[in-house]
Amino acid sequence: MKKTLLVMLGLAVVYVILSGTTASAQLWDKKTIITINQPMEIPGKPAIVLAPGKHVLKLLNSPGTRSIVQFFNADETKLYSTVIGIPDYRLQTPEKAEISFYEREPGRALPIRAWFYPGDNYGVEFVYSKERALEVAKASQQHVMSAANPTTNNPSEQPTSTQIATLQNETVVAATPQGTEISLTEAHPAEVKAPVPTATVNPPAATASSIPVATVASNTLPKTASNLPLLALAGIILLGGGFSLRVLLH
Predict the structure, then answer these.
(1) Quick check: pTM over 0.85?
(2) What is d(CA 95, CA 183) in angstroms, rounded to the nearest whole number?
(3) What is the rounded CA–CA span in Å between residue 49 and residue 41?
């Protein structure tokens, strides 16, 4: 199990509950309510720390990308930050929403790493500023996604279309524990991130119409089979029985 998951499970930091919005809204913005019992760090310049309590994560309503996430307070009256991420992939589909973390540094909050919505193999791995990404990478001994400006300049305000376009065009790299930068391809090799067809991961339940014809046919006689051989065999048996009876009577 990954170190980040051990941090999440061992400390029991986050409990995730699905929001009460409609299914269609959940599918679009993937709104997720989380309750944390310890401070949580999210990307920002400077870093933004969310206090223990309830918070909301939602995908930004932007047709250009599905990897910009917004963090709100519980009733969504306050926007903490609008953060870019990269698509994260996992083979095992989570049944519940999942939040993973990097290992904490002494005296600091847990830095959020990734977010997966229930039933989705694809999640969001968050991007930190270059300076902060290097610090987290050294402390956690993991690659941390970084960019020059991973959040908007005014995190507490809804981003403008220009700001969204700027976020979408940010160049994202990965900070290493050694203090260097590598490309996303090196940090996440293609063979690890290769997508699996949905039909293979979640095959539909078998129904009468989906059962192969050969399987059904193997339990029945072919429609072209004739009953004449069976009738002929029955006639021979009856004749033989009648002949035996005449022999006994005589």
Answers:
(1) no
(2) 31
(3) 4
pLDDT band at 190 (very low <50, low <70, confident <90, very high): low
Q: Return the HEC string of 91-156.
A: CCCCCCCEEEECCCCCCCCEEEEEEECCCCCEEEEECEEHHHHHHHHHHHCCCEEEECCCECCCCC
Query: At which residue do the structure tokens 């996992």 appear?
Result: 90
Q: Is the peptide bond before 46 cis (omega within 30 degrees of 0)?
A: yes
Kind plus residue range of the DSSP H or E element containing 29: helix 23-29
- Read off the pLDDT band of 102 (50, 70, 90): very high
Q: What is the pLDDT of residue 153?
A: 78
Closest CA to 149 of 241, 84, 103, 212: 84
Residue that is written with structure tokens 């919005």 in the block: 21
Domain assignments of the chain as residue spans, ordered by start: 3-201, 208-249
**In the structure encoding, which two tokens stand for residue 231, read together?**
């009738």
Q: Is 33 helix (H, G, I), strand (E, B) or coil?
A: strand
φ/ψ of residue 219, rounded to 5: -100, 5
Q: Confirm if 37 and 13 have CB atoms less than 8 A apart.
A: yes
Q: What is the DSSP letter of 57?
A: E
DSSP 170: P
- Look up residue 29 and give its two tokens: 């913005």
Question: What string of H, E and C letters represents the secondary structure of 65-107?
Answer: CCCEEEEEECCCCCEEEEEEEEEEECCCCCCCCEEEECCCCCC
- Residue 33 · residue 117 · CB < 8 Å: no
For residues 43 and 83, is the Cβ–Cβ distance under 8 A? yes
